[in-house]
Specification:
The chain is mainly beta and 314 residues long. The protein has helices at residues 2-25, 210-216, and strands at residues 44-46, 60-67, 71-76, 83-91, 94-104, 110-114, 124-128, 139-144, 147-152, 159-165, 175-183, 194-202, 220-221, 238-244, 250-253, 263-271, 281-293, 299-312.
Length: 314
């Protein structure tokens, strides 16, 4: 009798487990990854993972799986350090590469372990980097047409950061400020990218105080505007983004007044970096999304844009 009761207990437990799995994975015939051959040496981690920076389309895990039976499969990891990975779909028999897309925002830096469908035999170990240090690493990063681009202004990689002004024009001496991260020549040489943020305009620029320049770059949301590269009035206040691709081709944000689907926000502005002369500089951190166009009218979509650079009085 005890043996029968024991069997009933395990049978009921199995039913509860199966019902729970059915609700979790939303399919009646789910096969979890630990029941399938996986090449542990072939796990690939894609994208840059940073503390407090939300994941995008560039952040994912690739696993190689041998499917012995066609069907509907659901792969996922637990949520660790604020992020998780998942993929779902119908797969045929054979060896296939599965892309598990990442979601969430890492809360801490360090190395974190992600087991797919609780597979304990092999897992992805993901390094989450610290946010760039304001004292020594200027950078830009963005996903452009689904491809992740990044440039860090290190001393050894040919990438640098600088600030500049457009010109001193007319009786009012109106001037726009530029902040750049890119190759140490501008436009960048082939094989390098570069991004410039252009913000206009400051009237009476030569006599503007440090406080007025800093206020011009204060945190807040700003509209996109025509940067008026030919320098003909009337000037419009706003921001513009210029990006050079790996082939040395330039792309510009839309100069129209329609702000639909795009945004630009300065999230912080602080004094510095220090200058060796009388220049006054302001370090800014910005986030943005927009469309980019070339001279032929081709368009690219820029998302999750981030910028850490400086500009000011020159």
């Amino acid at each position: 009798m005890n043996k029968l009761a024991n069997h009933c207990f395990w049978f009921l437990s199995l039913l509860i487990l199966l019902n729970s799995c059915s609700k979790e994975y939303s399919c009646e015939d789910c096969y979890i990854l630990k029941q399938l051959p996986i090449d542990c040496q072939a796990i690939q981690i894609n994208g840059v993972f940073r503390q407090a920076q939300g994941l995008d389309a560039s952040n994912y895990i690739e696993i190689t799986v041998q499917f012995n039976k066609p069907g509907y499969y659901y792969f996922l990891t637990e949520k660790v350090n604020g992020i998780s990975f998942s993929a779902v779909g119908n797969y045929t028999v054979g060896l296939q590469i599965i892309k598990l897309m990442g979601t969430g925002t890492p809360t801490q830096s360090g190395i974190f372990n992600y087991k797919v469908n609780n597979n304990i035999s092999c897992a992805a170990n993901i390094l989450v980097e610290n946010q760039p240090s304001p004292s020594n690493v200027f950078y830009y990063s963005a996903t452009i047409d689904g491809v992740q681009y990044e440039a860090k202004a290190l001393d050894t990689n040919g990438i640098t950061a600088w600030g500049a002004v457009s010109a001193l024009l007319g009786n009012n001496y109106e001037t726009a400020l530029k902040a750049v991260v890119g190759h140490n020549t501008w436009p960048p040489s082939s094989g390098y990218t570069g991004l410039m943020i252009y913000k206009g305009w400051i009237p009476q620029y030569p006599t503007a105080t440090d406080a007025q320049i800093k206020d011009f770059l204060k945190p807040g949301s700003y509209s996109f505007a025509d940067p008026n590269w030919v320098m003909n009035p009337p000037f419009k206040n706003g921001v513009s983004i210029v990006w050079y691709d790996l082939n040395g081709k330039s792309w510009y944000s839309d100069p129209s007044d329609d702000q639909t689907g795009r945004s630009f926000k300065i999230t912080s502005s602080v004094d510095g970096p220090p200058s060796t002369n009388s220049n006054y500089q302001v370090t800014i951190t910005a986030e943005f999304n927009c469309k980019l166009y070339n001279s032929n009218g081709d368009v690219k979509t820029l998302t999750n844009g981030k910028f850490f650079g400086f500009t000011g009085r020159y």
